TrEMBL record:
This is Nodulation protein A. The lineage of its organism: Bacteria, Pseudomonadati, Pseudomonadota, Alphaproteobacteria, Hyphomicrobiales. Its main location: cytoplasm. N-acyltransferase required for nodulation. Acts in the production of a small, heat-stable compound (Nod) that stimulates mitosis in various plant protoplasts. One of its GO terms (cellular component) is cytosol. Belongs to the NodA family. It is found in: Cytoplasm. It comes from the Bacteria. Keywords: Acyltransferase, Cytoplasm, Kinase, Nodulation, Plasmid, Transferase. The keyword Disulfide bond does not apply. One of its GO terms (molecular function) is acyltransferase activity.
């Protein structure tokens, strides 16, 4: 039987230290099998690699974090006009 998935949408500033620790563990388990180097950014409870997301969508199941999406606001120039976009 599949467990129910619960989604949480939150701004980065709303996350608690325990959220970052849980996400970091999820990322280490996810990226670790591809090489220790890929899991290293998540040591010490850090829950991002590279730019820190502003908005997060986190899925939880009975085992904890099941999925994650992070969003950053960025501007790109299109025909000389700055356009606000979301980057993953």
């Amino acid at each position: 039987m599949r467990s129910k998935v619960r989604w949480k949408l939150c701004w980065e500033k709303e996350l608690q230290l325990s959220d970052h620790v849980e996400l970091a563990e999820f990322f280490r388990k996810t990226y670790g099998p591809t090489g220790a180097y890929n899991a290293k950014p998540f040591d010490g409870g850090r829950s991002w690699a590279g730019a820190r997301p502003e908005l997060r969508a986190i899925a939880y199941d009975s085992s904890g974090v099941a999925a994650h999406m992070g969003l950053l606001r960025r501007f790109i120039k299109v025909d000389g006009v700055d356009l606000l976009v979301g980057a993953n």
